[in-house]
Amino acid sequence: MTRVEVEYCVPCGMLNRAQDVSEAILKQFGESIDEVALVTGDAGVFVVRADDEVVFDKTEDEYDVDAIVRAVKPHVGAAA
User: Fold this and answer.
1) Angle (nearest 5°) at CA 78 between 74 and 80
2) How far, in Å, CA of 71 to CA of 19, rounded?
3) How far apart are alpha carbons 70 and 48 in whole angstroms?
4) Is 7 helix (H, G, I), strand (E, B) or coil?
5) Which domains, ranges and CATH numbers included, belong to the chain?
6) How far apart are the first and last CA of the chain?
7) pLDDT tens column, 7-58
8) Alpha-carbon gap, residue 75 to 72, rounded angstroms
9) Keyword DNA repair, does the record have it (predicted)?
């Protein structure tokens, strides 16, 4: 099953954003994924990984919760 990791910058105050992403992923995929983990970081990091593959990085992608959920979807299908 798929493991999703949301790494976020604590000093930047990105906890709410990380929670929003993890909640959206859990609502969309429910029991089809194994885990959504919040991982603390710093230096402005906000990265989402599905099975250790980066699917969103704020340095390269525009923040959009729906787009992040769509980026995770192929990993959920592959794990099923």
Assistant:
1) 120
2) 17
3) 12
4) strand
5) 2-73 (3.40.30.10)
6) 7
7) 999 999 999 999 999 999 999 999 999 999 999 999 999 999 999 999 999 9
8) 6
9) no
- Token code pair at residue 69: 């959920």
Q: Are 15 and 45 in contact (CB under 8 A)?
A: no
Residue reference for tokens 């704020």:
58
Q: Over 60: is that where the pLDDT of 79 sits?
A: no
Give residue 24's pLDDT.
98
Q: How far is CA 56 from CA 34, 44, 78, in A?
A: 19, 14, 18
Strands 2-9 and 53-57: unpaired
Instruction: State how far the Cα of 47 lies from the Cα of 61, in Å rounded to an integer.
Output: 10
**Residue tagged 């990105």 (tokens):** 14
CA 16 – CA 31 distance, rounded (Å): 23
